[in-house]
Hints:
Radius of gyration: 14 Å
Shape: globular
Structural class: alpha+beta
Distance between the termini: 40 Å
Amino acid sequence: MRTPHLFAPFCLYKPLYEPLQERLQRYLITWRESAMEEIEKLKVDYKDGEVETWGNRAGLRGLGELCLGLSELSAEQAKTPANHYHIEECMNNAEPGSVPLIITLKLDL
């Protein structure tokens, strides 16, 4: 049986990322408590020129919290490797058959 793990691969460096790490940890605890009965599931597909992401409630909630956490990085943090997150099967945070997806904070868009 799979366990909730959407934030597990995050590697944050102290002290620069400590406030973000604390916020993500708070999200993770809240998310795990609300999703104890529902395991997070996400699947990403690319078909006919479109990227489609499927998820159950817990998976979509975790994805939203991930995006919120990235959006709150400082300008300094956004220039570091903490500015993105990989969702892919080999990282054990996407369902089998998913195409790799990278979510990145880019301040100059």
